[in-house]
């Protein structure tokens, strides 16, 4: 039976790969993202699209109304929207503390606020029983990200997911987090990835390769399957062993 699947950040990278995985099962997919042109180019069979800034409560209310009209019930919600601010406009901040405040605010807006607002707007529409709520974290939540801001924002999703797992469990809804390592072909790093850094990240894995959007998408797809119905409040790391070191 076809399910209703909502995916934020669905126009590119991991979100797009996940959308294709669900659509291949015949599920009805709604792609949400800030850039309408990216959503329109996604080319996911049968997918609906909705452009919105998910850090804006007013915009999220619009998403909720659209979901109510088109889907009614949400079987799977994947919170894939996020980033480290590489694609954001440069801030004209000259005060060092002002720059810190900007970096941390951007990262929590992109990674925490977007997920929290969309989840809270749609939580009452999650299928009961059988709903699946999924979040995208990062290996950075375990070992830092250099600046600390991105890592902290991803780590913040973990306790939020655990709280939701306890709250929604009685309704037969599972809540889990997937934490990827270095994944290529996502646009996440913008123009900041140099060959030496890439080689170092790949060398940290035990598998000797970078992750792909499909690696993460298939994990999300499995967590949303009936076979994972007794898995909840977990953080699944998909990083080729890099978090353990090599």
Automatic annotation (TrEMBL):
**Any idea where the Ketoreductase domain is?**
3-186
**Which PROSITE patterns does this entry report, sorted A to Z?**
ADH_SHORT
List UniProt keywords, sorted A-Z: Oxidoreductase
Entry's SUPFAM superfamilies?
NAD(P)-binding Rossmann-fold domains
Q: What class of enzyme is it?
A: oxidoreductase
Enzyme Commission number(s) of this protein: 1.-.-.-
Q: Which GO terms describe its molecular function?
A: oxidoreductase activity
Tell me which InterPro entries the record gives.
KR_dom, NAD(P)-bd_dom_sf, Sc_DH/Rdtase_CS, SDR_fam
Q: Out of the domains of life, which is the source?
A: Bacteria
Q: Give the UniProt family note.
A: Belongs to the short-chain dehydrogenases/reductases (SDR) family.
What PANTHER family does this protein's entry cite? 3-OXOACYL-[ACYL-CARRIER-PROTEIN] REDUCTASE, CHLOROPLASTIC, SHORT-CHAIN DEHYDROGENASES/REDUCTASES FAMILY MEMBER
- Name recorded for this polypeptide: SDR family oxidoreductase
């Amino acid at each position: 039976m076809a399910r209703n699947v909502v995916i934020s950040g669905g126009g590119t990278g991991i979100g797009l790969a996940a959308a294709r995985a669900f659509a291949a099962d015949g599920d009805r997919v709604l792609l949400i993202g800030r850039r309408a042109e990216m959503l329109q180019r996604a080319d996911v069979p049968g997918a609906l699209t909705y452009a919105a800034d998910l850090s804006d409560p007013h915009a999220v209310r619009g998403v909720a109304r659209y979901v109510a009209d088109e889907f009614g019930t949400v079987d799977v919600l994947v919170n894939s929207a996020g980033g480290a601010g590489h694609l954001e406009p440069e801030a004209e901040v000259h005060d060092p503390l002002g720059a810190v405040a900007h970096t941390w605010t951007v990262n929590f807006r992109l990674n925490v606020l977007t997920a929290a607002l969309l989840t809270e707007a749609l939580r009452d529409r999650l299928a009961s029983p059988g709903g699946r709520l999924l979040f995208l974290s990062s290996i950075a939540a375990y070992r830092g990200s250099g600046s600390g801001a991105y890592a902290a924002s991803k780590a913040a999703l973990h306790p939020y997911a655990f709280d939701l797992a306890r709250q929604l469990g009685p309704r037969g809804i599972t809540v889990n987090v997937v934490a990827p390592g270095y994944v290529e072909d996502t646009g996440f790093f913008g123009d900041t990835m140099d060959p030496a850094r890439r080689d170092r990240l790949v060398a940290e894995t035990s598998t000797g390769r970078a992750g792909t959007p499909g690696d993460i998408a298939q994990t999300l797809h499995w967590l949303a399957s009936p076979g994972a119905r007794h898995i909840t409040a977990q953080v699944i790391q998909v990083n080729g062993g890099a978090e353990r070191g090599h």
